Amino acid sequence: MIGIVLVDDHPVVRAGLRALIDGQADLSVVGEADGLDAALAVVTSEGPDVVLMDLSLGTGKAGGAAVTAALRALPAPPEVLVLTTYDTESDILRALEAGARGYLLKDAPPDELFAGIRATARGETVLSPSVAATLVRRTTPGATTITEREVEVLELLSRGLGNKEMARELFVSEATVKSHLSHIYTKLGVDTRAGAVAAAIERRIIRT
Amino acid sequence: MIGIVLVDDHPVVRAGLRALIDGQADLSVVGEADGLDAALAVVTSEGPDVVLMDLSLGTGKAGGAAVTAALRALPAPPEVLVLTTYDTESDILRALEAGARGYLLKDAPPDELFAGIRATARGETVLSPSVAATLVRRTTPGATTITEREVEVLELLSRGLGNKEMARELFVSEATVKSHLSHIYTKLGVDTRAGAVAAAIERRIIRT
DNA sequence: CCCGGCATCAGCCAATTGGCCATCGCGGAG
DNA sequence: CTCCGCGATGGCCAATTGGCTGATGCCGGG
């Protein structure tokens, strides 16, 4: 019997997962949590085999990646299977770096979900096809390696600042800002600031 | 007994709603659908009292607002209660205009959900507190009434097009595009294209 | 019937942007 | 030790953008 803890701040989603999972003979939900603290408490007390983790915990709160890291830091850490709505870049990486075993999309059919849970319990890595594809795309070519500084520029950009203002904000010259922007354009495959903002938001490089 | 049909493309969410609702003596889920066609089919065959509608149906597909409109156009239309993750502007309006009775957030506690369903079945209007607040905010001041045409411009803008390209795309002159942009800037409270894209995405006027 | 909002278009002008090229210091990988 | 990537900078120049004023046609509400 595989013991599972659900971490998601949506009661509806928790109920859905519980209903689906409890229909499986070899799976059992042993606890639920809606945030970081509750997750730590229930995981330490129940010692589940697998934690199903929603990445987009609430708005602005400690993200699923942070909770994942916290859980993996426990003495006998559970395997973590991330379950989320989006399949866009940076979240995936952060979650996997935080120690998640796998990554499934919420709109995955139940069968895929069950298989993923069992595989995770066995210590295998599970990735949604589209997620895997994204990862491959990401590591294969020039790899969209937006540097930290470039992210800063993108954030200011999304606030509508001009080059001069960004320069002031970042304590660099306008030329430098332009340089960063040029790099951003090539990396994101766009050639305007507006396009860069949209691309950055879409790939979750920045959030709104 | 109130008959309910669930329209949501996430199996997990459907299962969750079904599990929660079936725990209520006076509520019963009589059907599920994951898209426009299925929704029309199951609603005509089951004649539910209330339809629980997810607004963000899939990516790019016919949105929940469209499905709502289609359902309300049926001979004996069911009451529609929109259930969604976000409480940001434009979606709400579109759904209500499409004939939805009310609007609840997915992270609402189950009790609120049940109460909402019963109220909707009685023909009452239900709005999540935050949604109601948003509506008030929206109608009170200058009201961010982005016109349809302006949304088109914003979409092209987010794809990084220049004024000239947008003009070609929209079959108007460059001057017209600039005019639309100026209006957009004042309405969104920004003064650059990049800022406009970010603001538009944040308020869910456009999606990525 | 008039007014306001929407969409359309025009011209002017200053400021900003984006492309391109070249340089420099620094720290890590080979 | 050398090469490479990142961050920072300078300059040049054409194209684009954004602000402003003003005007027209159409439609719907008061």
Keywords, separated by commas or semicolons:
DNA-binding, 52% helix, Arc Repressor Mutant, subunit A, Rossmann fold, 208 residues, alpha/beta, homodimer, 2 domains, elongated
Strand tally of chain A: 6
- Helix segment count of chain A? 10
Strand-residue proportion of chain A: 5-15%
CATH class of the largest domain in chain A: Alpha Beta
The general outline of chain A is elongated
SSE string of chain A:
EHEHEHEHEHEHHHHH
Helix- and strand-based class of chain A? alpha/beta
CATH level-four homologous superfamily name of the largest domain in chain A: Response regulator
Summarize model confidence as the mean pLDDT of chain A: 81
For the biggest β-sheet of chain A, the strand order reads 2-1-3-4-5-6
Q: Give the low-pLDDT segments of chain A.
A: 136-143
The CATH topology annotation of the largest domain in chain A reads as Rossmann fold
What helical percentage do the residues of chain A reach?
40-55%
Ends apart, CA distance between termini of chain A = 42 Å
Give the C-alpha Rg of chain A.
Answer: 20 Å
Total of domains of chain A: 2
Describe the protein's architecture and organization:
2 copies of one chain form a homodimer. Chain A has 208 residues and is an alpha/beta fold. Chain A has 2 domains: 2-139, Response regulator (Rossmann fold, 3-Layer(aba) Sandwich), CATH 3.40.50; 148-202, Orthogonal Bundle (Arc Repressor Mutant, subunit A), CATH 1.10.10.10. Chain A has helices at 11-22, 36-46, 64-72, 89-97, 110-121, 129-139, 148-158, 163-170, 174-188, 193-202, and strands at 2-7, 27-33, 50-54, 79-84, 102-105, 126-127. The longest helix of chain A has 15 residues, at 174-188. The N and C termini of chain A lie far apart (42 Å). Mean pLDDT of chain A is 81; it is low at 136-143. Chain A binds chain B through residues 9-20, 58, 106-110, 113, 157-162, 190-198, 201-202, 208, and chain B through 9-20, 58, 106-110, 113, 157-162, 190-198, 201-202, 208. Chain B binds a DNA duplex (30 and 30 nucleotides) through residues 145, 147, 149-150, 162-164, 172-176, 178-183, 185, 191-193.
